C-alpha cells in the first residue's frame, strides 16, 4: 500500500493521553477493535506511523493501515506489511503472495468521509445503489460498530463491486 496520507491529524479516535499515540497504544488499539497484531512492528515518528510485518490477507492489511490512520494525532501511515498466505505462493509455505505481473494486489478504493456523508450516500456515489451501504459497512468492520456512526475526515475502505 505504501504511504497513506490521512491529512487530518486533529480528527479520529483518541488513543492515549498525548497528542500523538505511542506504538504500544496503537498496537493495543488494534487489538481492542479486533485486528491481529502478532508479528507487527509499529513505529511512530511525529505524526507518521510505520507498520511492518505480515497480514493474513490484503483485506486485513488494508484494515490495519486504515485503523491506524483513523487515530487522532496520526496523519500518515507508511504501510510496509506483506500479505502472507499460509502454505501458498510460489516461494513455498509462509511466503508473500505476489500478484500476476501488471495486476494490482487490490481493487479496493478509499473514501474520506465529508460533512453530510452517509454510508448510503457513499454507496450511491460509488456503486450507483444506496442500498449497497452494507458492503461498505462490512468492509470496515471491526473499525465501524454502527453504520450510522461515521465522521468527517475518517477514511473508509470501499470494496470492489
Automatic annotation (TrEMBL):
- Please name the InterPro entries in this protein's record: Bact_Kbp, BON_dom, LysM, LysM_dom_sf
Q: Where is the composition biased (Basic and acidic residues)?
A: 1-17
Q: Where is the BON domain?
A: 18-85
Instruction: Note down the stretches annotated as region Disordered.
Output: 1-22, 84-108
Q: Where is the LysM domain?
A: 109-158
One Pfam match, given by its short name, reads: BON
Name recorded for this polypeptide: Peptidoglycan-binding protein LysM
- Gene giving rise to this polypeptide: lysM
Amino acid at each position: 500500500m505504501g504511504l497513506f496520507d490521512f491529512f487530518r491529524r486533529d480528527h479520529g479516535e483518541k488513543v492515549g493521553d498525548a497528542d500523538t499515540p505511542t506504538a504500544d497504544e496503537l498496537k493495543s488499539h488494534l487489538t481492542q477493535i479486533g485486528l491481529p497484531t502478532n508479528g507487527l512492528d509499529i513505529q511512530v515518528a511525529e505524526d507518521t506511523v510505520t507498520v511492518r510485518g505480515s497480514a493474513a490477507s490484503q483485506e486485513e492489511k488494508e484494515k490495519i493501515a486504515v485503523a491506524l490512520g483513523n487515530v487522532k494525532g496520526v496523519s500518515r501511515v507508511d504501510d510496509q506489511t506483506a500479505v502472507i498466505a499460509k502454505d501458498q505462493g510460489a516461494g513455498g509455505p509462509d511466503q508473500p503472495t505476489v500478484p500476476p505481473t501488471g495486476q494490482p494486489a487490490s481493487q479496493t478504493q478509499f473514501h474520506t468521509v465529508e460533512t453530510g456523508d452517509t454510508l448510503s450516500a457513499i454507496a450511491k456515489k460509488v456503486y450507483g445503489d444506496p442500498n449497497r451501504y452494507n458492503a461498505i459497512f462490512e468492509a470496515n468492520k471491526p473499525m465501524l460498530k454502527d453504520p450510522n456512526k461515521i465522521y468527517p475526515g475518517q477514511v473508509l475502505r470501499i470494496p470492489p463491486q
